[in-house]
């Protein structure tokens, strides 16, 4: 069982393992995935692996190709980086503007989401922490005055939800950032909240870069890895 994922279903365990392997660069674009091999490695039956494949295909991490089966899809780092850069612009702006007039109800919901994430982290339910943390951004962005900002932010948040591997270290950092943003909003200090949001987005960019470089695998030569050549 993968550490910290004991509250997942078997399909969730397989899906999260595959996400981490792909997002860390251990499974590179175009790598074929064998259902039975993964089932044996994770000590599950082929059924949850097949279900995980379908889920990750829907997320865009995998693609099913004729005569090649399921393979890791091409994920462009520059596109992922651009998503976080645009998120930083939008979410910092919305936090600054909406932060001055957040309702008591919205602040209470944000506070509840931070508490929910803290509790899930204590019981090692990392999946629930990610859900609560994603919802934190969604709630805050819903306070934008224009639906253009709301729609753009939600689309980008949805795109980037699985860009980064799920890890306790990152969840702790995210939770600390959300707590600080919440405290600034509760104090009606919209400028500080916006500054903290911008710093939070910068930290996500740093995590994205690190996840790409740490697990980049063998260097490619003429478009092939050493393993592909052998």
Could you explain the architecture of this structure?
The chain has helices at 10-23, 35-42, 46-59, 77-98, 104-122, 126-141, 147-160, 168-186, 190-214, 226-229, and strands spanning 62-65, 69-72. It is mostly helical and 230 residues long. The longest helix has 25 residues, at 190-214.
Q: Which short descriptors sum up this protein?
A:
230 residues, mainly alpha, Arc Repressor Mutant, subunit A, Four Helix Bundle (Hemerythrin (Met), subunit A), 2 domains, two-stranded antiparallel ribbon, 10 helices, 3% strand, disordered N terminus
Strands across the major sheet, in which order?
1-2
Would you identify the CATH H-level superfamily of the largest domain?
A: GntR ligand-binding domain-like
Rg from Cα: 19 Å
Q: What is the count of β-strands?
A: 2
Average pLDDT taken over every residue: 87
CATH topology of the largest domain: Four Helix Bundle (Hemerythrin (Met), subunit A)
What is the CA–CA distance across the termini?
31 Å
Count of domains: 2
Q: In what range is the share of β-strand residues?
A: under 5%
Q: Biggest β-sheet, characterized?
A: 2 strands, antiparallel
Spell out the helices and strands N to C: HHHEEHHHHHHH
- Give the CATH architecture of the largest domain: Up-down Bundle
Low-confidence parts: 1-6, 217-230
CATH class identity of the largest domain: Mainly Alpha
- Fraction of residues in helix: 55-70%
